[in-house]
Amino acid sequence: MAADSLDQVVSLCKRRGFLYPGSEIYGGLQGTFDYGPLGVELKNNLKRLWWQHNVYERDDMEGLDASILMNRYVWRYSGHEQTFVDPLVDCKTCKGRFRADRLGDAACLKNSKQHPGECEGELTEPRPFNMMFKTQIGPIPDPESFAYLRPETAQGIFVNFRNVLDSSNRKLPFGIAQIGKAFRNEITPRNFIFRVREFEQMEIEYFCTPGQDEQIHNTFIEDHVNWWVNVCGLSRDRIELYEVPAAELAHYSKRTVDIMYRFPIGLEELEGIANRTDYDLGSHSRDQEKLEIAAAVNPNAHSTTRLSYFDQASNRHMVPFVIEPSAGVDRGVLAVLCEAYEEETLENGETRVVLRLKPALAPIKAAVLPLKKNEPGIVAAAKQIKNMLQATGQMRAVYDDTAGIGKLYRRQDEIGTPYCITVDFDTLGREEENGLKDTVTLRDRDTMQQERVAIADLPALLLGRIYGAS
Ligand code: GAP
Questions:
Q1: Which candidate, 440, 423, 443, places its Cα nearest to that of 373?
Q2: What superfamily in CATH does domain 364-468 come from?
């Protein structure tokens, strides 16, 4: 199981409506992709399962949905204005611009078979390039009226720490979870949705007292590896942990461990779990030196809120430490697609493409298929069953009669639908009395085994198999 090459997954995604290149009819926009009808279901399912595990199944978590546009001073004090940079080099010959530390990911503009630096072109010295997108706020463009599109969702959580604390009366340790868009002006967006300029993150900022941080960090690493394996279906032997060396740590981090997944393009980061210490809450808190610097630029540009916590045990204010699990939604989608993809050779020598998604992730949970589309009784029964499954409110079910039954099964296999339900003459009880009236054939995507099931039992049976399975 698992795709051998990214091309297999890219082709399936386009063909079946998981993902399309962004703005395609105008020639596209590099580093952007649009989720199609099946892609949006898969992505929503992934996010819902993450929220379920990290918020609903815990007693120590709150949720948040902060604005994408934030006061630009957030990004000054978070350190992003200064340090959120990648090393940029230009090729003096082909005029291409490349990320100096990722030349192996890029191709020379004159000879696409060679990487920059391997060809004749001479590269400039690397210079820092800030990856934050800027946008204009309000109608009058002046040097002060810009904002950044957030490059991480995390800062929305930090600046609301006091608000959440006051409105929820939480005690340490507790966390705030958020899922939302982030934007980065990547120099070399690449590898389908692996590195894009607009993407989503699923982040937690977990606040604790210094001293608790190291153990909580380790617990999150273990818990999140297990989530990717048990809930999302990634195989454990394609996952590795990467202890980020001190020289590569982000400016806020004391320790970061990346959960790496073996994509067809190689072993790459899926989620980063960082110990951000008290860096962010500390830098956003009122601090006399910063107030003076900020007030010199703009009198309204400082935070007047102290993002601290009153610890009753020690009877003092302290700035909590923060453990941050931060996963990319789009990388998660790509990982589950790559993992689930299989070209299976059947006993009769034919090949079928099957997407062995965990049922809870599958865009469509059940397809109801009539054995004959010209038989009004069969068609009516099939549509009724589809409506009954849909009415559970917990699964997307579809009716399809646009091809013969064999072809319909193959189509559903390819998009990962775990169950097909076939309605035939036995369902109607028109054949000789054989005890099969009001039953249907239930086909399992993975084993292709079929069983006869009473229609009345279908909703409970399917819900148990779909959600019990993850
Ligand atoms: N708040 C911490 C933070 O943003 P990060 O390692 O820069 O840390 C976290 O990003 C996750 O976001 C990554 O592990 C990755 O899954 C995802 N991510 C980052 N940049 C991305 C990009 N350009 N395209 C898609 N996903 C990206």
A1: 423
A2: Anticodon-binding domain (3.40.50.800)
